[in-house]
Amino acid sequence: MPEVLIIGGGVAGLEAALTLAEHEIESVIIEKELRLGGKASLYNCKAVDGVCQACGACLAGQRVRAVEEQELVKALVAARVAGMRNLQDGLEVDVETPNGRLTFQVRGIIVAAGIDTFSPALRAEFGYSHLPGVVTALEIEGIIRESPEILGESPRLAFIQCFGSREVGAGVPYCSRVCCLYVPKLAGLVKGELPGSRVDIYFMDRQRYEALYRPKTSFCTHIRAMPSKVHLMGSKELEVIYDDPETRKPTARRYDWVVLCPALVPGKDLPSLASLLELGTGRGGFLQVGAGGTTNRDRVLAAGACTGPMSIIESIASGRAAAGKMASELRRQR
Ligand code: SF4
Ligand code: SF4
After folding, report:
1. DSSP characters for 227-267?
2. Which ligand 1 atom is nearest residue 56's CA?
3. For residue 215, what pLDDT is reported?
4. Ligand 2 within 6 A of 137 CB?
């Protein structure tokens, strides 16, 4: 019988399960989607000329395969936590599955419920969903993977960073932390696939570590401005309007594709899950945690991006840290 129930089958949850297995602790992963791997498994390898760029995308598939081979880990997909009660020496958790309701009596829970992205539809002036050629970064990843020829031989692309981040009015007052590193790698992937492409990167702000990657995007034009609007010119050319950072005057540049790089936000189910488990949330609505993923509740730890925006590699480290803490707690209680 599993001793630990892990909510979320993304990289943090998978890593937590594998780490518990190293400590000979059985666990069960509850994943609401139909497959394991989470959002991390939707990204492409960003290696340039065979050189790894440490994006972490391949780690998702590796963790899924390792979990599938690990006897001490069970995974239920299309499953959701429906209730939780305290026991004298543990927790009782109800889980809805396609085959009916299951109840687990466990000694601990690790919440690794993942993350969502800011809905581009909330900023209608950028034309997502009604202008051809306005897409999200994740959609461009899919196009490059499936059929890069759709982009054209020498496309002009505008990447818009900080999209939806640092917007108090939209409920996203914080910096998403990871896109400063992600966007240059994505731009490098596009350039590698389509050497004739022209790439502009719009940004409001920059993380200091981004300077490390700036030389790798010397083929891009970096524009410090948040565009105010995207227009359709003719049948498929897109015009991006922004205030020129030097003259402060409205300026326009034309593109074939506008790629929105949206803010990372708490998963849409996180508020109800937090309420069900009686977990505290903090700034931006993410779960509030201390060292090793401790929460306001005994026996419940949290890991990964449901505790705040983080990269794939950071999520894996967070899952490992929470599982290590859980293992030492369980050992102490034995
Ligand atoms: S970490 Fe990223 S760039 Fe490196 S091999 Fe894996 S997927 Fe490719
Ligand atoms: S990580 Fe960079 S691109 Fe993303 S919101 Fe923060 S400053 Fe903007």
Report:
1. --EEEEETTTEEEEEEE-TTT-SEEEEEESEEEEEEPEEE-
2. 1
3. 66
4. no
- Residues 38 and 127 placed together within one structural domain of the fold: no
Confidence of residue 77 (pLDDT cuts 50, 70, 90): very high
Task: Judge if 21 and 141 occupy the same domain.
Answer: no
Angle among Cα 131, 133, 139 to the nearest 5 degrees reads: 115
Mean pLDDT, rounded, for 313-334: 95
- Is the CB of 165 within 6 Å of ligand 2? yes
Q: Work out which ligand 2 atom sits closest to the CA atom of 176.
A: 5
Q: Is 252 in the pocket of ligand 1 (CB under 6 A)?
A: no
Confidence (pLDDT) at 213: 67
On the question of pLDDT at 110 being above 80, the answer is: yes
- Cβ–Cβ contacts within 10 Å for residue 168, how many? 8
Mutation pick for ligand 2 pocket among 180, 201, 220 (CB with most ligand atoms within 8 Å) = 180
* Residue 121 in contact with ligand 1 by CB distance below 6 A: no
**Whole-angstrom Cα distance, residue 302 to residue 306?**
8
Range of the domain at 80: 4-114+267-333
Structural domains in the chain (count) = 2
How much is the mean pLDDT over the chain? 94
CA of 205 to the centre of ligand 2 (A): 6
Condensed to tens digits (0 to 9), the pLDDT of residues 286-310 reads 999 999 999 999 999 999 999 999 9
